[in-house]
Amino acid sequence: MKKPKAKMGQVDFILFATIMILVAVGIVMVYSASSYTALHSKMYRNDDMYFLKKQGVWAILGITCMIVAEKVDYHVLKNKTGLFMILTVGLLLAVFAFHDNHGARRWIYLPGGASIQPSEIAKYVVVLYLAKSIENKGERIKNFKYGIFPYLVVSGFYAGLILLEKNLSIASVIMIVTIIVLFASGCRKKHIAFVLLLVGLAGVGGIVLEPYRMKRFISFLNPWEDPRGDGYQLIQSLLALGSGGILGTGLGQSRQKCYYIPEPHNDFIFSIIGEELGLVGCIFVISLFLVFIWRGIRTAVRASDIYGTLLAIGITAVIAIQAIINIAVVTGSMPVTGVPLPFISYGGSSLVFNLIAMGILLNISRQTSN
User: Fold this and answer.
1) Closest residue by Cα to residue 172 from 191, 198, 192, 193
2) Nearest to 171 by CA among 120, 111, 242
3) Whether 355 contacts 347, CB under 8 Å
4) At what angle do helices 232-244 and 269-302 cross, to 10 degrees?
5) Which of 108, 192, 333, 363 is found 20 to 30 A from 249 (Cα to Cα)?
């Protein structure tokens, strides 16, 4: 059967606008959350705009890359997927040549104080592989041996390398996104249920076998049992959210960012949003992510081919899963884990690679079969 010819059109403006608003909110909140710490630290040159300047530079670079990616036909990625996979493995191994940070080796440090986190690349490379391979596999995807097992091996391999870096959170994101893409591709429900069981057992094993993860899990159940230790960060986050009320204390007026929440501009930035902008601000940010998910799914449904559909689903799922996990952690709905809030948390490589992926998603939105 001949595939419908794709037509080039305008990008999904609502999707584009949502992404840009999220980036803008992120830049403002990074400055607000980090200004006190940066101003009172010689490490950051006593410059309250230290993190704002760095995040602004990364945002400009990321938006530029997004615009370039939006102009390039996403089908050209097919022939380069194998190369991307090999390079990503090299980068994931390269982190072990650099010093650790709090016991984790997740970063490649570059001259000038910059760094990249290869796991941020890996989650999208896995999506590229899944989309290309599943399109070629066709109906054989319904066979567990040929249709699911190879993807579990490949995704598990990348997740395993990331797990060695002491990064269970991103490893989990990769496996969850893999399951979502497999489900969307038409795999049998009993196979998906079995895979969910396997991944769930692996996740439990990852927690039980690492004492510090087990402590985090126990503290999540009752953080007030150890308020100065493992439960400290969650308690401070809940205090920030609670003190914000409906309308918040006002932009820049957070008290919890004043050395109560460690590095408030990173993984726990949502709690600062709750404190300064209140419930209204939290709902606004959550609404932006819901709109993003809606437009991402719409783009997937309207894509010109299966490859575009699966690619859009995978990219949307990466952002959605990270946002859900981050907000769940900050609100005490799941154990504390290090997943940044996409587009909003401080982090240069995360922002740039997320925006490159958004460029690909926007390009898919330009090519529709109806």
Assistant:
1) 198
2) 120
3) no
4) 80
5) 333
Buried b (16+ CB within 10 A) or exposed e, 320-332: bbbbbbbbebbbe
Which tokens sit at 149? 């097992």
pLDDT at 133: 93
CA pair distance 280, 251, nearest whole angstrom? 13
Reduced to 3 states (helix: H, G, I; strand: E, B; else coil), residue 246 is coil
Produce one character per residue of 269-285: b if its CB has 16 or more CB atoms within 10 Å, e if not: bbbbbbbbbbeebbeeb
**Partner residues linked to 7 by β-bridges:** 368
Taking alpha carbons only, the member of 237, 258, 262, 345 closest to residue 40 is 258
Tell me the pLDDT tens digit for each residue of 188-232: 888 888 888 888 887 777 777 777 667 777 777 788 888 888 788
Q: pTM to 2 decimals?
A: 0.92
Listed residue (51, 29, 6, 113) closest to 284, CA to CA: 29
CA-to-CA distance for 113 and 13, rounded, in angstroms? 35
- The pLDDT value given to residue 370: 57
What number is the average pLDDT over the span 96-118?
Answer: 83
The token duo for 302 is 């309207």
